Amino acid sequence: MVDDPSEYAWSSYQINALGKMSDLCTPHPEYLRLGKTQNERMENYRALFSCHVEGELLEDIRLSTNKGMAIGHDRFKDEIEKLTGRRLRPEKVGRPVGWRKKKDGI
Fold this sequence. Notes:
Helices cover 48% and strands 0% of the residues.
């Protein structure tokens, strides 16, 4: 979308990372935990964006996000499924094997 997060007009990056004033954004608890002072929070927030994500990782993130699935290793997914009671991995696609025999009574 953009080369730098500050270039995206609909992001809170300019507020959280650069200190731009806005009545549209209220600091959330996760942001406030990034530091004791405003400068410390902004510095730590900018650090979150220091790595550019591309290639296979970016594609994995997009696919998981679009399907509402977790991204991570199997142990992480197991823990999140237990905690939330939600399935976080895609199920096998297509009709079950033998579905026609059951339907047609053959």
